[in-house]
Every structure is written in structure tokens, then in C-alpha cells.
Design goal:
Length: about 110
């Protein structure tokens, strides 16, 4: 899953917004989780309808309260904040697209009980 938008002090965005199916397993299905605060290092997805096979993953890099109505927060980065900060520092074009390919190779999701 490649990062296709990096906006410093705001958010980094990865995903398959073309609906190619590469991230089908990431889609939220069924009941939507209750959104939590948009602090730094929160994981979220768009509140838009997920009828296609596309999916966008957002990782906030700063507290962003204006995203409360736009994103569903479903987790937080608990290990690797330094990696998020490194991604935030890459060179981008005028549309915030990274000039080099950066992607997620592996991720572990854990449910806090």
C-alpha cells in the first residue's frame, strides 16, 4: 500500500483509491466504529461510503480537530512513530505526492481490551 499524499504537520495518506482491490482486506465492514479524538499518530479512514474496493488509510501527524467530521478513527500508531515522522519529511510535489515511492510492507493490528 503506497503513500500518495504527505502533508507535513497534518496527515499522511496511503491506500488504493483506484479500486484495484489490492487493499480489499482493509475495508471496514458492518458497524462503523465510534470515532475518537484526532490526535497525532491516529489511524483513520474516510467517512465516505465504501462501496468500491478502494480504501484510504490516514495517519495524522499532529492534532487535527477539523477532521472529526471527515474521518473515522479506528486505531493509533503504538510503535513506529519515528517512521511516521520520517515519512512526513520526504520531498513532495506541489500536490503533496511523494517524489519517491513509500509504502506499507507489513502491519500488525491489535485490539485493546
Amino acid at each position: 500500500m503506497l503513500f500518495h499524499r504527505v502533508i507535513k504537520h497534518y496527515v499522511i495518506q496511503a491506500g488504493d483509491n483506484q479500486g484495484a482491490g489490492a487493499t480489499e482486506d482493509w475495508n471496514l465492514r458492518g458497524k462503523q466504529p465510534t470515532s475518537v479524538k484526532h490526535e497525532a499518530f491516529m489511524l483513520g479512514t474516510s467517512k465516505g461510503k465504501h462501496t468500491n474496493k478502494g480504501f484510504d488509510l490516514f495517519i495524522t501527524t499532529a492534532p487535527i480537530p477539523d477532521l472529526n467530521e471527515k474521518l473515522i478513527v479506528f486505531g493509533r500508531v503504538v510503535k513506529g512513530e519515528d517512521v511516521v515522522q520520517e515519512i512526513e519529511e520526504v520531498d513532495t510535489d506541489e500536490h503533496y505526492k511523494p517524489k519517491v515511492s513509500i509504502g506499507i510492507l507489513d502491519v500488525t493490528l491489535k485490539q485493546k481490551i
